[in-house]
Amino acid sequence: MKHKFNYKWYLKDGYPAPGIKKNGLKVFSCFSCGGGSTMGYKLAGYDVIGFNEIDPKMAECYIENHNPKHRYIEPIQDFKNRDDLPEELFNLDILDGSPPCSSFSMAGNREKDWGKKKKFREGQQEQVLDTLFFDFLDVAKKLKPKVVLCENVKGLLLGNASEYFGAVMERFNQIGYNVGYRLLDASKMGVPQKRERVFIYAIRNDLLSNIETCDLFGFEPKLNLDFHEPKIKFGKVRIDDYENKELSDRDYNIWIKRKLGDNDFCDIFKREFNKESNWNTKLIYDYKICNTITSTEGSKLILFSDPRYISDHEFHLIGSYPIDYNHLKNKPRYLIGMSVPPVMTAQIANRIYEQWFTKFKKEN
Question: Which residues constitute the domain of residue 21?
């Protein structure tokens, strides 16, 4: 079975993806990072006309690779309060956003970080991460796009965070949108990586009559997001002899103690040293789908079959990032780990076009 969007692609080949036509629809991206979602929309035939990003290093990288028309390098709190936004931003088809999510990640501190100011990296301003979703919705209220699409971590649905998630959903209703959500796995969507993410999709209330709705879990817009594309195992992605990524002496001395079935270095430490440690160093098998790429400092992906780390080129493929993406001075692992896989967004954006926007056009 052929994948709708190829995880191996190049910016130089242009947009949209083969077999997809330009649809003339306009998108604005918030929390854009390096442009993972932006590339997904472009692959699916949309025009991304601008972005908002707080981190100047990420913004520089975004501009280098996407050359957007409208550029706002500032906190979203400043962006939402602007009174000089161009008319074009008030006629958006989709407002896109992935509010920083580390305070809800199951791999993070969760409740301990809620309400605290935090920054991701040197040079970035501090902000309270768990209020950013509501700042984003203030932007939606102001710009009134036809559709809002946002992405976040699975942990947003779990434990005490579920109350926060409920408040987010209620806020959508308050600002005039009918909203639904799905937990999706990138590995079922043509991305060579296990990556579960919550996608929230909302349609402006005055457009709801154009599309089907469902009431199984409450009245919400209907959107088929079932993907059954063939899973891509790491063995199909690996590229030997591309660049030298040999293990450090310390990691090699742990790696040689591995046994078939070990998932990470923690399994080795428990067996060999009777202690739990190094759980964030994952062992990657050729016959399995690659683990989630994270931006966490110190986390590692090591081949089970060979004493080497996954290469930057392989990270591009695993994250469905274009091979010729210019990272400038940013580490590819960090930027790709922070981003929505472009193919993941492309799949969803394509479904939104087919199931929603084509019906808007028929009505108009």
Answer: 11-231+341-363
